[in-house]
Amino acid sequence: MTRAPTGEANAGSPAADMTDHGVEQYTANAATPIDAVAFAKAMAAFSIPDECAIAVAVSGGPDSMALLLLLREWCARRQVTLTALTVDHCLRDESGTEAAQVAAWCEALGVAHAVLPWRMGPSQRGLSRSPQAAARAARYDLLLNWCHANGHARLCVAHHADDQIETFFLRLARGSGVDGLAAMAPKSRRAGVDLLRPLLSFRKNALEATCVAAGQGWVEDPSNGNRKSARVRFRQARAIFAAEGFDDARLLATIAHLQRARQALETAVDALLAQTCRWDSWGAAHIDLAAFVAAPAEIALRALTRVLTTTAGEIYGPRFERLERLYGSMIAGPWRDSTLHGCHIMRDGTEILICREADAITEDVRVNAGETVLWDRRFSIGVPHSAPCALVVCRLTAPSWKLVTAGGNVPAIHPAIRAGMPMMTDEQGLAAVPWAGYVRADLRLQLKEPIFWGFAPSLTEFG
After folding, report:
1. 271 within a domain of the structure (yes/no)
2. Residue 169, CA distances (Å) to 132, 144, 163 in order
3. Which of 11, 360, 380, 403 has the fewest beta carbons under 10 Å from its own?
4. Exposed e or buried b per residue across 196-220, where buried means at least 16 C-beta atoms within 10 angstroms of its C-beta
């Protein structure tokens, strides 16, 4: 349902003051439209250079429409190229119409726009217990793939202070620790793309007020009122907590304290990984075992989670019970090579080698000439415009590797790492293994530029 920008946004309590690592810095009344100065202050934390490119996820709701309006003005002042991305999840019959409405609004605002359809959406309607959860995961895959394909290293999303509160409750109910209860960070990194949340300092009704003040309509998502959703139930229960003195300002203050604690822990993790872990160009981690286990257990467990998550191209870490068992074997033994979280973990002399588990890779991705894709959430791979046809990126097979090695001059690579690496095929079979320097002879003659590839978490630009 599309809502016209009429009436007043609901009044709300003033937002709380927080520290640099917190979620609140904007203290105006929550129903006051967000002005350019307040938004520029929030964006300053990201140190974005002028004349770069930014993508923004826009569903059409009031939150993302307000972000679009604010970014449009902010980007214009800095000659930053802005592109709005709308994921059509296809879970509701109206989703296509809503995506088209967002496209029309973007055209009226002079903002470039792309619709990213989730092809699996229609089939998920009746199959998944939680199609919304599956859609969220697919949404980020689609957005990150677009960023890689179009050379955008920054993606803005419209999470706000009220989302932080709901996330806190959801994670509290699951028994989360510091990381979970600290909710969402203003800046995180996924597959080499900086995920930016500039609205964490603002309340939802301030975003609605921003749309109203600009005469901008928005789309109402009926699932936002569905009590089957735990997030919706927590949202509706907040009045009960407020009556007991646990109001939004105190919740946000608690989240800010936890974010400071998380930041301190992450700084220690950064130092431990810098000392004990090296990444090779194939996306595998090599950990100095003796130095690693000498660290405090909490820091080592967090570092191990980060390594596993990065290596597997995942968003979230493994279950703590399995992580703790792995850490225990690293400290006291007995050691057994194992798999965890889509990774293969093995002893390699004085080091622990962590690489992608080949059997966990199922993705084949088609890449046309002139395109760049994200494969297995780990590798950015680009095909030059001069390529005569589309190529398919898939997991390297043993027969294909045999063809590569027949030509000689192949890199020395551990067999377990090699098994999780990509190759490229066409109708004639094996076309290229760019990380090994192999391109089939006829294709090499036609390519005017090399095939681009890189381990996505280490990249700062794509293609």
Report:
1. no
2. 19, 28, 10
3. 11
4. bbbbbbbbbbbbbbbbbbbebbbbe
Beta strands in 65-196 (DSSP E): 81-88, 112-117, 154-156, 187-190, 193-196
Say how far apart CA 66 and CA 70 lie, in whole Å: 6
Q: Which domain holds residue 26?
A: 2-257
* pLDDT tens digits, one per residue of 5-34: 654 444 333 343 333 333 333 333 458 999
Q: Do 107 and 148 contact (CB within 8 A), yes or no?
A: no
Same domain, 106 and 221: yes
C-alpha closest to that of 113 among 86, 153, 145, 143? 86
Structure tokens at 274: 């810098």
Q: Are residues 156 and 239 in the same domain?
A: yes
Output DSSP code: residue 12.
-
Distances (CA, A) of 280 to 21, 191, 325, 404: 31, 16, 26, 21
Q: Are 175 and 79 found together in one domain?
A: yes
Q: Count of residues for the chain?
A: 463
Residue with tokens 């079979």: 429
Do the Cβ atoms of 27 and 185 come closer than 8 Å? no
CB 180 within 8 A of CB 174: yes
Q: Is the dihedral of CA 189, 191, 194, 196 positive or negative?
A: negative
User: Are residues 417 and 337 both part of a single domain?
Assistant: no
Strands 365-367 and 351-356: unpaired
CA atoms of 270 and 284, how far apart (whole Å): 17
Q: Give 204-225 pLDDT, tens digit per residue.
A: 999 999 999 999 999 987 665 5
Do 147 and 235 belong together in one domain?
yes
> For position 243, what pLDDT does the model report?
76
Could you say which DSSP state residue 32 is in?
S
pLDDT band at residue 230 under the 50/70/90 scheme: low
pLDDT digit string, tens, across residues 363-409: 899 999 999 999 999 999 999 999 999 999 999 999 999 999 998 88
Residue 290 neighbours by CB distance under 10 Å: 10
pTM above 0.85, yes or no: no
Helix axes 62-78, 36-44, angle to 10 degrees: 80
